[in-house]
């Protein structure tokens, strides 16, 4: 390097530093928020702000409550909460299942056709497109798989690729 290129480089660095310094001191005039301003802003957005002492007190009282209550009482409270929150559920009937046998060399289109024949999926081309886009079509494993009618494409893809 000669003198001229070193001087040019130095002038460029000096110019860059002066631009950044000017921006920092003159244009970016916002001061850092105080703790009280930050708390007010967070509370306005719906957050709850606790001091560390208040948090530790709540944590300690929660532990004391748990330790003071026998497990049966806690379980009853959970059951009561679950029964009031959720309406009575109808017992699920098990979905019909199909044993899919994947042999060596089978493609995702062949598997889609088999699943469509058994009414596991409605649209074989849509299933094949899903398998290709998600990368499952190249990872199909040989074996016998239990497929249910209530499974979605993702579940079937993960099952037959063992992902």
Automatic annotation (TrEMBL):
Compositional bias annotation for Basic and acidic residues: 59-80
Keyword terms: Membrane, Transmembrane, Transmembrane helix
Transmembrane portions of the chain: 9-27
Region (Disordered), start-end ranges: 59-97
This protein's name: Aminodeoxychorismate lyase
């Amino acid at each position: 390097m000669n003198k001229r290129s070193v001087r040019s480089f130095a002038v460029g660095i000096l110019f860059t530093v002066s631009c950044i310094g000017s921006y920092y001191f003159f244009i970016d005039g916002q001061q850092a928020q105080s703790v009280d301003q930050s708390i007010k802003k967070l509370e306005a957005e719906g957050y709850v702000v606790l001091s560390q002492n208040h948090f530790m007190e709540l944590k300690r009282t929660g532990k004391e409550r748990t330790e003071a209550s026998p497990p049966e009482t806690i379980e009853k409270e959970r059951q009561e909460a679950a029964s009031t929150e959720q309406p009575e559920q109808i017992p699920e009937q098990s979905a019909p299942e199909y044993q899919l046998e994947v042999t060596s060399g089978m493609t995702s289109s062949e598997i889609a056709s088999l699943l469509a024949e058994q009414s596991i999926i409605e649209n074989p081309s849509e299933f094949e497109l899903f398998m290709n886009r998600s990368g499952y079509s190249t990872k199909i494993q040989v074996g016998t798989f239990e497929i249910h009618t209530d499974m979605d494409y993702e579940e079937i893809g993960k099952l037959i690729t063992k992902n």
